[in-house]
Amino acid sequence: MFNNMQKILVVDDEMKLVRLVQAYLQESGFQVVTAYNGTQALIQFEREEPDLIVLDWMMPEMDGLEVARRIRQTSSVPIIMLTAKVEETDRVVGLELGADDYVAKPFSPRELVARVRAVLRRGAHAPAASKLEFDQLVIDVDGHQATMSNQVVDLTPSEFTLLRTMAEQPGRAFTRRQLMEAITESGYATVERAIDTHIKNLRRKIEADPTQPHFVHTVRGVGYKFQQGF
């Protein structure tokens, strides 16, 4: 069950598309605020403090990637990118900047609503264990927060879910597909390479040396596992 007061910021320079998405989200019980360019998006983000941002990639003056980059400097709010780009490498760029998901144009508004719900559910998920502790890394699953040496690590919902999923079963090798299923939930097709991007971002935030990971290890030919030690 979702709180009807959850607020979504929708950003796109196509006014008709924004109104269509707004109508579907409001019908699904969300509060919606809108912006039509990157500058407005940053102003609305600061003013409204949304729970999730639906952000168009291609906009004049300031594109969605620059907006995402600036937001990620201060916040881990979930971001879903809207993109007309079809190349896998283009989509990975957005994920590297901290986007949690992407939806390719043209898209079904109902699919977008499902993606919004899946990403918000990802952030709200809390398993039975309350805390997972590994050396200086503490994963507070009830509080949906990780700390390193008592300092909060600013993880996106996708990064936190990946970390929690692997840390709950230390030593288990997860395939990229299994990890993708853990963070998408909705079952929509997406590129498995996106997991590599999320893992790269996660390592950058929790590892002293991301090139020599202490926690998140690569399992050749399979995927990744969580295990303390080099």
Q: Could you explain the architecture of this structure?
A:
The structure is a single chain. The chain has two domains: 118 residues, Rossmann fold (3-Layer(aba) Sandwich); 96 residues, Winged helix-like DNA-binding domain superfamily/Winged helix DNA-binding domain (Arc Repressor Mutant, subunit A). Helix 1 crosses helix 5, helix 4 runs parallel beside helix 8 and helix 7 crosses helix 8. Strand 8 and strand 9 form a beta hairpin. The chain has a five-stranded parallel sheet with strand order 2-1-3-4-5, sandwiched between helices. The chain has a four-stranded antiparallel sheet with strand order 6-7-8-9, covered by helices on one side. Strands 10-12-11 form a three-stranded antiparallel sheet. The longest helix is centred in the middle third of the chain and has 16 residues. With 230 residues, it is of the alpha/beta class. It is globular, with a radius of gyration of 17 Å. The model has no long low-confidence stretch (mean pLDDT 85). It has eight helices and twelve strands.
